[in-house]
From TrEMBL, chains A, B:
It comes from the Bacteria. The gene is asd. Belongs to the aspartate-semialdehyde dehydrogenase family. The lineage of its organism: Bacteria, Bacillati, Bacillota, Bacilli, Bacillales. It catalyses: L-aspartate 4-semialdehyde + phosphate + NADP(+) = 4-phospho-L-aspartate + NADPH + H(+). It comes from Salinithrix halophila. This is Aspartate-semialdehyde dehydrogenase.
Length: 341, 341
């Protein structure tokens, strides 16, 4: 039996991540006394299913957080900036899925498998890292502990669901159009708010967020900055290339890590196998490796293609796959909430 | 006017690459006196279109190469091993698209933009490199000349057409099945001759060829070995992760290169812009970068996302896209043939 039951608000309850949060709260038997789904005025009045019952979505207002113990936010950075202080003022602890507070030095940025102890340092807000960062740091954690490293080069293969439910519809509709030989509609990918839109069906787009001045995208720089903060180690250098591919759910990552000391490959596999949150699927000779279609719907981080670099004997290559809506977002947030109760 | 007209055999004329070779010979006005399309007994008797006429495919036999000046092979490694010596014996020069002779020290491995001068050293056979190697070395050539490098880390996003026309059908059929909610047929991907087959539609498969003993795949090791041979520089260390993605035509590559000396980013862009065979599409602020849907059907290698590493000031990131059936196969072979006449 849980020690206490709590009132949980889910802001962005009708979105792709919000839906997964509700399912996670159910499946993990989270001790919910009252569920309070919140959204914009446009979605208010609709219902969501929770434990077999229809629960009406309320409009997110400052007052809607009265009596809330834990508030899980996934309705965009602007919404978080507006409502997180209001929720905190009313006594709630906010677990925020957006980019709004991640680099705020007052806000812990938490992946439980890596830095669970920081949860207790919160001052009302705890940030959930970016999806592509989360699965990478889970895979890197056992290597960091056992061997150390200060250099990671990563290329991502990201699913469209990172941009929400509408992006998933866009990929399926575009796929249909291209199979039928008609012109695909382009409204969301690669970045909804930017001017140009390209088809993602049967394509690969090397842009997952807006550009920064250094030629990297914000998505790429999130992986750089968040990794340092989560490991509390500014010496970790990450270089990222973030690419959108025609996959609905599940991000994949090709990682190159230069370990801090000599290693035995079997020792690396053993460290990964024993690590919290990781499933090792590593046997290329038998065609065993992680793939996004298999990882979708699962909470774990799947690791395979473990091999020593042919050039640098301390270089290690990994292929890391996880469901970006689950461990990359909803599951990680609910795990943080579990620690809070 | 061409200096001489020649008899050209195309072995594997009905395949995905063979078809592109025929189109290339036409479009580039290759001085063909007689076109001799060859294939297995199964395809013999069918016709191919060339310069508006139907030309009957003949069965590939040793005698079929009598009178042939140039033979372009793309019918698989075993077929090349069998027929290349027969064609050479009869006076033909073979340009081979398969893996059969690439690492043979007697056989030049040629990408004209990089090592055109080696064509003249042939002893009857010239090998065309692997598709993913070709586009990478074209992009690397101007950097090698101007700055030098000995370290490349590459992750690929490879189109299914690298496995032939049937793999393209498989992707479209699987996409239809998954959109309709029916079970997709799995017969070819990731490697036709291996035991296990996985859906490639809406998926990413980190295997493009059979496994080697070191945990890398043959596709990955081709990039390692062929790059050294093409640049005639054994000091070049390449680490590759080769991944199949649901794209029909056009391989993409995320490259990290450590240059041999300090560089100015504008100087790098200028070198790429001026290089033979490269089109620079590099302006992330305006959402300009190469994508496989745009590159399909074009002969060039498209380069973008040019940026300095955030960690190592000599580190450079690039995104390189090219049509794997054209520059990655047919175009490169026909360019070699052009040099021969």
């Amino acid at each position: 039996m849980p020690s206490r039951e709590v009132t949980v608000a889910v802001l962005g309850a009708s979105g792709a991540v919000g839906q997964q949060i509700l399912r996670n709260l159910e499946e993990r038997n989270f001790p919910v006394k009252e569920l309070r789904p919140l959204a914009s005025a446009r979605s208010a009045g609709n219902t969501v299913k929770f434990r077999g019952e229809d629960v009406t979505i309320r409009e997110a207002t400052p007052e809607a957080f009265e009596g809330v113990d834990i508030a899980l936010f996934s309705a965009g950075g602007g919404v978080s900036e507006k409502f997180a202080p209001e929720a905190v003022k009313r006594g709630a602890v906010v677990v925020d899925n957006t980019n709004a507070f991640r680099m705020d030095p007052e806000v812990p940025l938490v992946v439980p498998e890596v830095n669970r102890d920081e949860i207790d340092n919160h001052k009302g807000i705890i940030a959930n890292p970016n999806c592509s960062t989360i699965q990478m740091v889970v895979a890197l954690k056992p290597l960091y502990e056992r061997f150390g490293f200060d250099r990671v080069i990563v290329s991502t293969y990201q699913a469209v669901s990172g941009s929400g439910a509408k992006a998933m519809e866009e990929l399926t509709e575009q796929s249909r159009s291209l199979l039928e030989g008609t012109e695909p509609k382009k409204e969301i990918m690669p970045v909804g708010k930017l001017e140009k839109h390209y088809p993602i069906a049967f394509n690969a787009i090397p842009q997952c967020d807006v550009a920064e001045d250094n030629g990297f995208t914000l998505e790429e720089m999130k992986m750089v900055r968040e990794t340092k903060k989560i490991f509390r180690d500014d010496a970790i250098g990450v270089t990222a290339t973030c690419v959108r591919v025609p996959v609905l759910r599940g991000h994949s990552e090709s990682l190159y890590v230069e370990l801090g000391k000599d290693f035995d490959l079997e020792e690396v596999r053993q460290a990964l196998r024993e690590a919290e949150g990781i499933v090792l699927q590593d046997d290329i000779a038998s065609q065993v490796y992680p793939m996004p279609l298999d990882a979708a719907g699962h909470d774990d981080v799947f690791v395979g293609r473990v091999r020593r670099d042919t050039v640098n004997p301390r270089g290690l290559n990994l292929w890391v796959v996880s469901d970006n809506l689950l461990k990359g977002a909803a599951t990680n947030a609910v795990q943080i909430a579990e620690h809070l109760v």
